[in-house]
TrEMBL record:
<keyword id="KW-0804">Transcription</keyword>
<dbReference type="InterPro" id="IPR000524">
    <property type="entry name" value="Tscrpt_reg_HTH_GntR"/>
</dbReference>
<feature type="domain" description="HTH gntR-type">
    <location>
        <begin position="1"/>
        <end position="66"/>
    </location>
</feature>
<keyword id="KW-0805">Transcription regulation</keyword>
<dbReference type="InterPro" id="IPR036390">
    <property type="entry name" value="WH_DNA-bd_sf"/>
</dbReference>
<dbReference type="GO" id="GO:0003677">
    <property type="term" value="F:DNA binding"/>
</dbReference>
<dbReference type="Pfam" id="PF00392">
    <property type="entry name" value="GntR"/>
</dbReference>
<dbReference type="Pfam" id="PF07702">
    <property type="entry name" value="UTRA"/>
</dbReference>
<keyword id="KW-0238">DNA-binding</keyword>
<dbReference type="InterPro" id="IPR011663">
    <property type="entry name" value="UTRA"/>
</dbReference>
<dbReference type="InterPro" id="IPR036388">
    <property type="entry name" value="WH-like_DNA-bd_sf"/>
</dbReference>
<dbReference type="InterPro" id="IPR028978">
    <property type="entry name" value="Chorismate_lyase_/UTRA_dom_sf"/>
</dbReference>
<protein>
    <submittedName>
        <fullName>Putative GntR-family transcriptional regulator</fullName>
    </submittedName>
</protein>
<dbReference type="InterPro" id="IPR050679">
    <property type="entry name" value="Bact_HTH_transcr_reg"/>
</dbReference>
<dbReference type="GO" id="GO:0045892">
    <property type="term" value="P:negative regulation of DNA-templated transcription"/>
</dbReference>
<dbReference type="GO" id="GO:0003700">
    <property type="term" value="F:DNA-binding transcription factor activity"/>
</dbReference>
Amino acid sequence: MSKPHQIRTALDELLDGLVEGDPFPPERELATRFGVARETLRQALHELLVEGRIERRGRGTVVAKSKLVQPLSLSSYTEGALRMGRKPGRILVTWDDVPATAELADALDVTEGVAVMRLERILLADGQRIGLESTHLPSHRFGTFRKTFDPTTSLYAAIRATGVTFGSAVERIETVLAAPREAGLLESTTAMPMLRLHRRSLDTDGTPIEVVHALYRGDRVAFEARLT
């Protein structure tokens, strides 16, 4: 067994004896305990950070919360968080109207250049920043949200309250690195792997509801699909 693999196995066993929020031994102490070079140890610790098993807190490191598992289904982020016993939350970043590009106009079935509503929010779970979501909505369907919708609450619940029923969606997920602005909003770094989600949702009549581009921290969120 190689030295890096031995160290990783030892760290995994150490984590098995700890619970969420417990302090994780500092790098110097671990290097001495296992008799390895600091560089070898740093690589193993970086892997644990990326996997979301430990997290930096101030000058120290603690055992991280388990990842928020989001179902790949026509349910909202709120529903996924509540299902895992986590408290959902949102921070509004921008809420404006933007001219529809050719691609967006085609996806929302509107005229190119017409104004569409864009809602950008930071997604929280138990106060932790886990995602950055940008949703485009056709203004002719949901323009009244300007007066009625609280952006710190569930958008899907508000859409359903208008009588619209979600019928289907096409969703794509890919691994990316965050741009500096995105990393800053998510309190992360540009080196941390992210999960980029693209979704186009339709109602039961086949009329477009939304186009969503969301970025999730790979160390805090995982996606799950149920296959039958």
